[in-house]
Design brief:
By secondary structure, the chain is an alpha/beta fold. The chain has helices at about 5-10, 20-30, 45-60, 70-80, 90-95, 110-125, 140-155, 160-170, 180-185, 195-205, 210, 215-240, 245-270, 285, 300-310, 350-355, 365-370, 370-375, 390-395, 400-405, 425-430, and strands at about 10-15, 35, 65-70, 135-140, 275-280, 315-320, 325-330, 335-340, 360-365, 380, 395-400, 410, 415. Helices cover about 45% and strands about 15% of the residues. An 8-stranded mixed β-sheet has the order 1-9-12-6-2-5-3-4, sandwiched between helices. Helix 7 (about 140-155) packs antiparallel against helix 8 (about 160-170). It is globular, with a radius of gyration of 22 Å.
């Protein structure tokens, strides 16, 4: 029996039917944390299937937290919309805060539909059950979070807002690019803002009881969001300075911040029942780093940290594709394009799954993880917001042991680009096939 035939024996085909993920929900069982990845930031099927699984987890297993790889302030606007306390008239408006590159990650048609579904679900929810929230975990929003802290303090304590403005004015000479500040602080051209942002968070936390005594649950929610923004400013200041010390240092700070945000959410929402959380992020964040090349570079990630902190209470789910199209840019900050995804390299997991002949399937890696075919160290592809097929092996592949990386894995052999809400002429044109102007 070939390696591909072994995989075909254990694969569970997906037919696009309502019961496709019944067995996956059984595998998840009573886990409190379900981390659902993606092999690119621009593939329609990854977004669509992830949303389908998430809807079932919310409806059937009482999950109440959705935490995504996105900025906290932008996600907070969507959170208010799905909770029915927003002035936004529709999900497009609610998602309009996502203006930082890459906008298509969250401003796309699948997310638009999901946000509207989530609002409708919350509207019909039994009052005895807590509504579902929509939260960001990332730490790029240094200036937006500063503004959010100041708005909160202006409302509850103008004198505290004055002190906060003085502390945060440390960043004022560098415009809205935190990297300019970080470079100046790293080379010693200025004194860092570290003490100022730590002091601001500490003052906010010290006065928590006073601020929380004002308006019951509304005050608790507003204070938590302000505290999280102040915490984000502190972590973002460290992160941007760490960018000039090397990839491992900044990567680890970012993923540690995301895990701590998840823990803070669970702690904040802990009531008569323990809240359960779903996480949406890239495979590179959610697959256990200890089973990949990341560990050799001193890097950790969310998947590893969540497993270490919530042993036995987390399920990690990854995605892959063999070929198709993807929404991605050629360089950071460049326009979104529809790019052709090359057939996966020989010897990779994607190539192995392609050889099964199955167009769509998932594998229970907890039940089949000891099979040598899967335990063998193989290449695995990762496409972020940038795709450079001309340097694909170097830019987009790494070695991994899949059964140690994830608990379940979904393969969709041919995929298509996710559709941005802002479809530019560049995106519409797509990419010429490699055989152009010939047909073969």
């Amino acid at each position: 029996m070939t390696d591909a035939e072994f995989v075909r024996e254990i694969a569970q085909p997906l037919a696009g039917e309502a019961g496709d993920y019944n067995a996956l929900l059984q595998l998840i069982d009573d886990a409190r944390f379900v981390l659902i990845g993606e092999a690119s930031h621009g593939t329609h099927e990854f977004y669509f299937e992830r949303a389908a699984i998430t809807k079932r987890l919310i409806a059937e297993k009482d999950f109440s937290i959705l935490a995504i790889e996105a900025d906290w302030p932008d996600s907070a606007r969507v959170h208010r919309y799905v909770r029915g306390v927003s002035s936004d008239a529709n999900p497009d408006q609610a998602l309009s805060g996502f203006r930082r590159f890459p906008t298509w990650m969250w401003r796309n048609k699948v997310v638009l539909e999901f946000v509207e579904w989530l609002r409708g679900f919350n509207e019909k929810l039994d009052p005895k059950r807590p509504p579902v929230g929509f939260y960001g975990m990332d730490l790029y929003s240094l200036h937006a979070s500063i503004e959010a802290v100041l708005r909160y303090l202006d409302k509850v304590d103008p004198e505290a807002a004055r002190r906060a403005r003085l502390r945060y004015s440390c960043f004022d000479h560098f415009g809205h690019d935190p990297q300019d500040y970080a470079y100046a602080a790293t080379v010693g051209a200025i004194e860092s803002c570290e003490n100022a942002v730590v002091q601001q968070l500490a003052e906010l936390q010290q006065r928590a009881a006073e601020f929380l005594s004002r308006d019951g649950e509304v005050a608790a929610e507003e204070f938590f969001f302000a505290e999280q923004n102040a915490r984000l400013v502190k972590d973002a200041e460290r992160y941007y300075r760490a960018m000039f010390r090397g990839r491992a240092s900044s990567w680890n700070l970012r993923d540690q911040h995301m895990v701590e945000t998840l823990e803070n959410l669970v702690g904040h929402l802990n009531g008569s029942r323990q809240p359960k959380a779903i996480v949406w992020a890239h495979n590179s964040h959610l697959g256990d780093a200890r089973s990949t090349e990341m560990s050799h570079h001193g890097e950790v990630n969310m998947g590893q940290l969540v497993r270490e902190r919530f042993d036995g209470d987390a399920v990690l789910i990854g995605f892959s594709t063999y070929q198709g199209t993807v929404t991605a840019a050629s360089d950071w900050g460049a326009p979104a394009e529809q790019k052709n995804v090359r057939p996966a390299l020989r010897g990779s997991y994607e190539d192995l799954f392609h050889q099964t002949g199955l167009p769509r399937f998932w594998i229970d890696l907890q039940g089949a993880g000891q099979i040598g075919v899967l335990q063998q160290r193989r290449l695995e592809r990762a496409i972020g917001v940038i795709y450079r097929p001309e340097t694909e092996r170097l830019s987009h592949y790494f070695h991994a042991r899949l059964p140690e990386q994830f608990d379940a894995f979904i393969h969709i052999d041919k995929t298509r680009a996710v559709e941005p809400l802002e479809r530019t002429s560049i995106w519409e044109e797509g990419e010429l096939p490699e055989t152009y102007p010939f047909t073969v």
